[in-house]
Amino acid sequence: MNSTDFNHGLCDFLSRATTPFHAVAAMAATLREAGFESLDETEKGASTQPGGRYYLTRNDSSLIAFTHGTEHAPGDGLHMVGAHTDSPCLMVKPNPERLRQGCFQLGVEVYGGALLNPWFDRDLSLAGRVSYADDAGALATGLVDFRRPLAIIPSLAIHLDREANSNRSVNPQTDILPLLALAKEGEEPALRELLATKLREQGHAVGRVLDYELCFYDVQPPAVVGLKQEFIASARLDNLLSCYVGLQALLAADPAQSSLLVCNDHEEVGSTSAVGAQGPMLRSLLMQLAGNEPAYAHMLDRSVMISADNAHAVHPNYADRHDERHGPHLNAGPVIKHNANQRYATSSETAGLYRLLAEKEDVPVQSFVVRTDMGCGSTIGPLTAAELGVRTLDIGVPTLAMHSVRELAGSEDAFNLWRVLRRFYAYPRASAPRVE
Q: Could you confirm whether the keyword Zinc appears in this record (predicted)?
């Protein structure tokens, strides 16, 4: 495989994975096609077999996939990779319909730390999960994705806001309601009826729609761009890029080792949920695989987690926002993320292991440390490390325009990260060398 083939698959995945629900559905389909079995956690005493490959989902928005090594069982230690399925977006409110000046709009809530200005003047569609009562009155769910432009958030003309280029702020309550149609009082569309019709077209026996989790997204497809095709431009690169890289690495993993991929929802809002990295999902599965507390402790002592989440590339127009010695560049290799205050979980031990693996693949490595006079973001790495007590590395592909409606990454970096993670899954020792 080369980077061109890899990026073709990445762009296809990004196009399909318009919400965390659709991302998990796409990953689960790929796993099933590759021979992975769905693991039923509700089965008491459910067990795995050497050479077996398994996956499970929760809330339709988080996923764990793992392999039971033919030579090293999970209890001997796991090579784990973590990522997250969610991205900042505009989510539809429960009672969203608004009719203003003959314009039918939907009220939205900002999910995560979204960069709001780029959402204006984009062709937007709608996707998510819908809960409904079926024809028999039972609760059921279905995924919807309209896959065509339904809405737009028009900018205010500069003639009416002469300071727009120097002093424009966005009020998320009043300024970013998407416009869907023209309508008169009493003739405006009903969102739940639109959803019911869409579900029925997909074969669902919908009695009535009860509730939903919907988000708007930009319909512009992912693209490889640049004079030399140096870049990938797409929505949701943070962090579906890492989900795809981790998935492809797991599919290519050495069957002798026990390997695991976890993709959690809700990272962008703090990860404190039943299916977030600070929730019980991963620990519950690992405890089931270990069988008891002593075996669980032994497993984690011999395990390593690589948390993969995009890193801030140095912006050519704003280079002063980076520490001058730690400004990662596009297509210069994945980035090890460091923070002395534990906003990232990287240690010298886990960073050293990654550098050894990258050397074997001839993949360059970069380092990121935030400017000392600026606040540092975080990711699932520290949360997972704290929840499990497992040695953890925070790594990421350098990215520009993070949390925008359309982000930018280098066209070589995702492929290079895949090469290193594939090597990590084949690493012969789950336990990194200890200092004597």
A: yes
CA distances from 283 to 2, 167, 276, 309, 379 (A): 35, 47, 11, 20, 18
pLDDT at 436: 43
- Specify the pLDDT at position 43: 65
Neighbours of 426 (CB within 10 A): 18
The reported pTM is 0.96
Q: What is the predicted pLDDT for the residue at 44?
A: 58
Domains contained in the chain, CATH given: 3-87+235-425 (3.40.630.10), 90-218 (2.30.250.10)
**Dist. CA 264–CA 273, nearest whole Å:** 10
3-state secondary structure of 129: strand
- Give ∠ CA 19-24-26 in degrees, rounded to 5: 95
